[in-house]
C-alpha cells in the first residue's frame, strides 16, 4: 500500500505531527467503564451509529454493549437496529419485549440465527446483551420497551416463509398472493445467488410477484394485529422480499448497484422504525465501519457508492447524528477463509506502517477515545490515511492488498475508539449452515 502522506513533506515529519496530535487530543479509556466523556458528547443526539472494524472481535461487541446500555438507561434510546436479518432479529425483539411464545432464553432464541456467518449474532457476547435488555424491559409498559431489529436485506427466503406461515392463519386471499411469490422463487431454493444466475440466462424475474405481495399486505395491514408489532413486521418482510429481489438481480452486474440497494434498504428500515415508534424516538445502529462511517470521507464515493452513515447524516443532521468507529492494532478475530466455510479463529497482524491503526499504536499502547471534531482544523488529517476493515472472509497474509480503506478519518467519524489489542468473538455455533450463505459486496462487510 502506498504511503498516504503528502509528497511535499517527509513521512517521518507528518507521522510525528499526527502522533503528537493524537497524544494531545485522545482520552485514555482502558475499559468500557470510562465512557462518561462519550455519553456527555452524545448529548441529545437522536442517532448513534456504532461501528466495528470486523464482525468477529470480542471487544467491539462488549464496548458497543456498554455504550448501548448507557444510551438506553441515561438517554432514553428507543431501539437497536443492527446489520442483521429482519426475521431472526424480530424473533429477538419479541423475546426482549416479553411477547407470548417468544422463547425461554436469549441462548435459545439466538440459536435460530443459522444463516452464515452465524457468529455475527449467535455469540455469547450477544447472549449477555439480550438478557440484559429483557431484564430492562420486563417492568416497563409496552410503549417504553426497547426494541431490537434487523436492518439488512438478505433474508429473501426467510421473509417469504414467515409471511406464508402468518397469512395462512389470518388472510386466505393474501396467502394466495404470497404463494405466487413463493412459487416464483421456489426453483432457486429461495437462494438469492441461484436466482441471480438463472435470471441472467432466462429473461424472467420475480419482481412483479413481490411487488404484488407488498401491495396486498399494505391493503390489509390493519388485520395483522396478533401482537403490537405484527402488522409492521409483516409489511417489513414484504419490503425485504421486494428489495432482496432487486438486490440479487443487480448484484451480477457488479459495481455499486447492489451495495447501494442494500444500504438504502437499511436506512429506509431505520426511518420506518422511527416513524413506528413516534414521539421523538432515538435509534442506536450496530454495523460495520464501512456502513456507519460517512462514505464521502473514503474512496467509496468515487466508485458511486453511498452508505448508512452518509445518508443518515444527510437526512437527519439537524436531529443529531453521532458516528462512532472502532479499530485495533493487533489481536485475533473470528472469520472464514471462503464463503460458507467453517468459522475459525485467526490472528490479526499488526497494523501496517502508515495506517491509522499504526499511528494510534505509535501514540501509545493504551486504549483511546478520540473526539474527531478536534482534528478537523488540522490540514494534515485531510490527507486520506489507510484504515483497516476486516470482512467475514479474511486472509491475514493478504492484508496489504485490500484491507485498508483510504479515509479522511475526522470526516468519516465523529468519535473513534481505539483498542490496542483485541480478542476473538465467542460463537454459539461450531459450524455454519452452508445452505444459507448471503452474498455481499466482495469485501464481505
TrEMBL record:
Pfam families: Erythro_esteras. InterPro entries: Emycin_Estase (IPR007815), Hydrolase/PRTase-associated (IPR052036), UCP036794_erythomycin (IPR014622). SUPFAM superfamilies: EreA/ChaN-like (SSF159501). This is Erythromycin esterase family protein.
Amino acid at each position: 500500500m502506498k504511503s498516504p502522506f503528502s509528497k511535499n513533506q517527509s513521512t517521518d515529519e507528518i507521522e510525528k505531527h499526527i502522533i503528537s496530535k493524537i497524544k494531545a487530543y485522545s482520552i485514555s479509556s482502558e475499559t468500557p467503564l470510562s465512557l462518561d466523556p462519550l455519553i456527555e458528547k452524545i448529548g441529545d443526539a437522536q442517532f448513534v451509529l456504532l461501528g466495528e472494524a470486523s464482525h468477529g472481535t470480542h471487544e467491539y461487541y462488549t464496548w458497543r454493549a456498554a455504550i448501548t446500555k448507557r444510551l438506553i438507561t441515561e438517554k432514553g434510546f428507543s431501539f437497536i437496529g443492527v446489520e442483521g436479518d429482519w426475521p431472526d432479529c424480530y424473533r429477538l425483539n419479541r423475546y426482549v419485549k416479553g411477547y407470548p411464545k417468544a422463547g425461554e432464553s436469549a441462548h435459545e432464541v439466538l440459536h435460530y440465527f443459522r444463516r452464515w456467518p452465524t457468529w455475527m449474532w449467535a455469540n455469547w457476547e450477544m447472549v449477555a446483551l439480550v438478557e440484559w435488555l429483557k431484564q430492562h424491559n420486563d417492568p416497563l409498559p409496552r410503549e417504553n420497551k426497547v426494541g431490537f431489529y434487523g436492518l439488512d436485506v438478505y433474508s429473501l427466503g426467510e421473509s417469504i416463509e414467515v409471511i406464508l406461515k402468518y397469512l395462512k392463519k389470518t388472510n386466505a386471499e393474501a396467502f394466495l398472493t404470497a404463494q405466487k411469490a413463493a412459487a416464483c422463487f421456489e426453483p432457486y431454493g429461495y437462494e438469492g445467488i441461484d436466482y441471480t444466475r438463472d435470471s441472467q440466462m432466462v429473461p424472467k424475474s420475480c419482481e412483479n410477484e413481490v411487488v404484488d405481495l407488498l401491495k396486498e399486505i399494505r391493503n390489509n395491514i390493519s388485520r395483522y394485529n396478533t401482537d403490537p408489532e405484527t402488522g409492521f413486521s409483516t409489511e417489513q418482510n414484504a419490503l425485504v422480499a421486494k428489495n432482496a429481489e432487486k438486490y440479487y438481480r443487480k448484484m451480477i452486474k457488479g459495481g455499486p448497484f447492489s451495495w447501494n440497494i442494500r444500504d438504502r434498504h437499511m436506512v429506509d428500515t431505520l426511518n420506518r422504525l422511527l416513524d413506528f415508534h413516534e414521539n421523538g424516538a432515538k435509534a442506536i445502529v450496530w454495523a460495520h465501519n464501512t456502513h456507519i462511517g460517512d462514505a464521502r470521507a473514503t474512496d467509496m464515493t468515487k466508485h458511486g457508492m453511498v452508505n448508512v452513515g452518509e445518508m443518515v447524516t444527510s437526512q437527519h443532521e439537524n436531529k443529531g447524528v453521532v458516528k462512532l468507529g472502532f479499530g485495533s492494532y493487533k489481536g485475533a478475530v473470528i472469520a472464514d477463509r471462503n464463503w460458507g466455510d467453517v468459522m475459525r479463529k485467526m490472528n490479526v497482524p499488526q497494523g501496517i506502517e502508515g495506517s491509522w491503526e499504526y499511528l494510534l499504536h505509535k501514540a501509545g499502547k493504551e486504549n483511546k477515545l478520540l473526539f474527531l471534531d478536534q482534528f478537523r482544523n488540522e490540514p494534515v488529517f485531510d490527507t486520506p490515511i489507510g484504515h483497516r476493515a476486516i470482512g467475514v472472509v479474511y486472509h491475514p497474509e493478504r492484508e496489504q492488498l485490500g484491507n485498508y480503506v483510504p479515509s479522511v478519518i475526522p470526516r468519516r467519524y465523529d468519535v473513534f475508539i481505539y483498542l490496542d489489542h483485541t480478542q476473538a468473538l465467542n460463537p454459539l455455533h461450531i459450524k455454519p449452515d452452508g445452505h444459507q450463505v448471503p452474498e455481499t459486496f466482495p469485501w464481505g462487510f
